[in-house]
């Protein structure tokens, strides 16, 4: 079974890549969202510096802030789905898992997960991103899922692994002696 540290590091690598992708794709929407919030927060900070805790007369948060936040979360969720599901379906590994030499495999057999299992695995962890809008509920659900392997023995399955019936295993290192040597085999040609 893959160790907790390996899984955590792989997830951090993947998070960094998806975050960078989001910065490129979602950057304009985040900028617009911040512009909608700025007048409100500037006034809150100005009042706090003066020791004024009054909330009367604060400028309203921009009308588009809520819609922009939903758009940002939908795009972020779609990017994560596009990053993770095809890679997991094909070989059970994202970039982070490849770097950390771990792979998700079905409990039943050592074969690729396939699209259905990869999607099932991802939805348990990825779909709560859409609930970040609800007072951070999605983030809490994702944290519970991420910590769940610490309490599952002996398979160390996260909730998303249980749903898709997968386990995360270490990938054995291949050495030069593990690869076939074509020179040791006769060519099949007759002299």
UniProtKB/TrEMBL annotation:
Question: Which terms are listed as keywords in the entry?
Answer: Cell membrane, Membrane, Transmembrane, Transmembrane helix
Q: How is this protein named in the record? A: RDD family protein
What are the GO cellular component annotations?
plasma membrane
Organism of derivation: Micromonospora cremea
Subcellular location, in the record's words? Answer: Cell membrane
Taxonomic lineage of the native organism: Bacteria, Bacillati, Actinomycetota, Actinomycetes, Micromonosporales
Pfam families tied to this protein = RDD (PF06271)
Task: Name the InterPro entries for this protein.
Answer: Pra-immunoreactive, RDD
Whether Flavoprotein counts among this entry's keywords is no
């Amino acid at each position: 079974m893959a160790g907790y540290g390996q899984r955590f590091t792989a997830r951090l690598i993947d998070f960094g890549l998806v975050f960078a992708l989001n910065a490129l794709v979602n950057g304009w929407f985040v900028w617009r969202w911040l512009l909608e919030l700025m007048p409100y927060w500037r006034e809150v900070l100005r009042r706090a510096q003066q020791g004024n805790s009054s909330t009367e007369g604060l400028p309203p948060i921009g009308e588009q802030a809520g819609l922009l936040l939903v758009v940002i979360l939908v795009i972020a969720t779609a990017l994560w789905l596009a990053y993770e599901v095809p890679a997991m379906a094909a070989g059970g590994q994202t970039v982070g898992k490849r770097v950390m030499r771990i792979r998700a495999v079905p409990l039943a057999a050592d074969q690729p997960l396939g699209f259905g299992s990869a999607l099932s695995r991802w939805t348990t962890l990825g779909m709560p991103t859409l609930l970040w809008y609800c007072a951070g509920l999605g983030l809490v659900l994702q944290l519970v899922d991420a910590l769940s392997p610490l309490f599952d023995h002996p398979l160390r399955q996260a909730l998303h692994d249980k749903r898709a019936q997968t386990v995360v295993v270490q990938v054995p290192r291949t050495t030069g002696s593990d690869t076939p040597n074509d020179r040791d085999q006769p060519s099949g040609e007759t002299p």
